[in-house]
Amino acid sequence: MQSVTTTARTFESYAAVLDAETSAAVRDAAGGVECLRVVHVNSTADGGGVAEMLHPLVALSNDLGLDADWQVLTAPDAFYEVTKAIHNGLQGDGDPLTDAMRATYRETVAENAAAFDGDADVVVLHDPQTLGMIGSLAERHPDTAFVWRCHIDLTDPSPAYLEFFAEDLAAVDHAVVSRPAYADALPLSDAETTVVHPAIDPLAPKNRPLDDLSGDAAAAADLDRYPVDPDRPLLVQVSRFDPWKDPLGVVDAYRQVRESVPDVQLAFVGGMPDDDPEGVEVFEAVDAETDDDPSVHLLTDLPDAGVNAMQRAADVVLQKSLREGFALTVSEALWKETPVVGANVGGIPLQVVDGENGYLVEPRDIDATADRCRRLLEDETLADRLGTAGRETVRRQFLLPRLLADYCELFAALDRARGQR
Which residues form the Trehalose synthase N-terminal domain (predicted)? Predict the structure, then answer.
């Protein structure tokens, strides 16, 4: 286990994006858990939405009076190969979980549980990578409340993978998911479940106005660094290279759009997180499929400010997922007033209201995806209207201080329950 150092953040710095009512609600929620010791545990400090949220969340928690810490697993590559299969299995893929995979997972989580440092009032374990630690930790720390925060899409999990985690889930004191439907799949014994929507950090280089950036961030946001042509229509999908994001389906939709908008471009902006060994394989498949098309660009591991610039340069941002826990990339695009065409799966319809701040399409409907992209490319007034509405949706519902308030309310409830034991 390793501790992660976060950059200090003050609540006052969010004043420009919060109304007075929201600010007061966040302060009240944090005031109810001042000095509570909270530790977040996940698989990596960099790459992916969980790490992106935890960096500012932990820093802001400390600014508002919590005693918050963040620790990450120490694990071999083989562990992440197994946890990627587990991730897929919990999202409905039926590939078998072998005895060797089970052993690799159990050995690694046992080593990390033994290395867990420090007592806490609440420990939040994020995603399947950490779930296997809970039994050992709960035995060693009987006065601690253990929360499992699942960020993935549990709409139709493989029964074999739920069975693998049955004992771990039975030890959970409280579960947090992004949609009520996800909780229905979990065999949680008597544990309660809370729905908490993820959120973006408006002060991060990925989400700040480009004019506010300086130094290396400003340089990374310079579109001249990237192969896209700012004078041509641009479709963008921002996501890791993952089969669940259906990048080849995005290519098919782009090709249909190109029939009526011949100068359209497509950019994939994708990271290669440390805990996702499948990414290279998917990247190579997309690269092979589009190698002869100079208007398709595969951009990997851009700095956050570069992702920001690409989302703002896009005429349409796609999120054509087949499964999706939430998709912070949707909130990121909406915050920048870029209209989104997203699949009607998982957490995407929590953010996109069809025809009001973007469009929803069925996940495998290439024709509908292409049609909605064409509408937005050909009607600037429509695109502007949806973009304006999208930013307001995020301001009201999906900014980081609201996420902190939700967690604080949960921690307060857990603390009260502990006092009643």
Answer: 40-183
Residue 205 lies in a domain: no
* Count of CB atoms situated within 10 Å of the CB of 412: 16
Provide, rounded to the nearest whole percent, the portion of the chain with pLDDT above 70.
98
Residue 14, judged by CB atoms within 10 A of its CB (0-12, 13-18, 19+), counts as: buried
10 and 108 housed in the same domain: yes
141 inside domain = yes
Range of the domain at 409: 2-199+400-419
- Shared domain check, 109 and 244: no
Instruction: Give the count of domains, the chain.
Output: 2
Residues 214 and 190 in one domain: no
Interval 141-173: pLDDT, tens: 999 999 999 999 999 999 999 999 999 999 999
User: The domain spanning residue 359 has which CATH number?
Assistant: 3.40.50.2000
143 and 246 co-located in one domain: no
- The verdict on 81 and 170 lying in the same domain is yes
Low-confidence winner among 45-49, 101-105, 205-209, 349-353 (lowest mean pLDDT): 45-49
